[in-house]
Design brief:
88 residues; mainly alpha; 64% helix; 0% strand
Amino acid sequence: MNHIEKPKTRSEVINEHFKSVNHPSHYQGKTEVIDIIDQAVDGLSGSAAFNRGNAVKYIMRAGKKGDAVTDLEKAIWYIKREIELEGK
């Protein structure tokens, strides 16, 4: 006998969607990446916070969403940009 799954309610679909938006699997681990980024950029603002936060993000998700090398190259790009801005 085939088991037919009950259709999901609208509420269940919405909850699953927001879970994937607010807590995507490629940013999960022992600590959520957003919490690590918040700590990394604490006290910074503007470009410094943006560049450093993105570098952390790409390092943390490397290999979990697509190609690891691409994510690491993106992290390097943000790090080089921050070094350039800090040197001015």
